[in-house]
Write a structure and sequence with these properties.
The chain has a single domain, classed as 3-Layer(aba) Sandwich (GIY-YIG endonuclease), CATH 3.40.1440.10. It is globular, with a radius of gyration of 18 Å. The longest helix is centred in the middle third of the chain and has 13 residues. The protein contains four helices and three strands, in the order ββαβααα. It is of the alpha+beta class and 109 residues long.
């Protein structure tokens, strides 16, 4: 058995994205989602369509990348799906300071 895994993104019928990993072939995994084999997120959002995949030689690398992608904004996920590296880099830059780092405004008394 291979040690690695695919990270994949599917677009659900409602337009949302689901990110997962699999050690099986992508064709099998997408067929499982569409057949309703998994009672999770995609079950009520079928059919799904594979829009992105990447092979990782190590299952731990695949899991790490899956977790990273799940934290990304929708815009970043869509730039990755389009393979728009320039847009992805632009979206990766923080646009404004973190809200907890904002200077406090003096209260009026």
């Amino acid at each position: 058995m291979r040690d690695g895994a695919y990270v994949y993104i599917v677009r659900c019928a409602d337009g949302s994205y689901y990110i997962g990993i699999t050690r099986t072939s992508l064709d099998i995994r997408i067929a499982q989602h569409n057949a309703g084999v998994f009672p999770g997120y995609t079950f009520t959002r079928r059919p799904v369509e594979l829009v992105y995949s990447q092979w990782f030689e190590s299952i731990t690398d695949a899991i790490e990348n899956e977790r990273k992608l799940k934290r990304w904004s929708r815009a970043k996920k869509e730039a990755l799906i389009r393979d728009d590296l320039a847009q992805l880099q632009q979206l990766a830059q923080r646009r404004s300071p973190h809200s907890s780092k904002q200077p406090e405004t003096p209260s009026s008394s």
